[in-house]
Backbone:
């Protein structure tokens, strides 16, 4: 589930970078979700092993 959320945030951020979706709020929210899902994934992987 964390990977899916991170993937969706990455896709939205790529759309922002290419100018398809032009909003500064989208870029900040997407970047925060992308970074937090990556860090949460690392944390959950560390707990699992």
Residues:
């Amino acid at each position: 589930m964390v990977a899916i959320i991170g993937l969706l945030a990455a896709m939205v951020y790529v759309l922002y970078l290419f100018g398809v979706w032009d909003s500064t709020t989208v870029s900040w929210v997407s970047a925060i979700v992308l970074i937090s899902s990556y860090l949460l994934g690392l944390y959950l992987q560390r707990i699992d092993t």
The radius of gyration is 12 Å. Residues 2-48 form one domain. The chain has a mean pLDDT of 80.
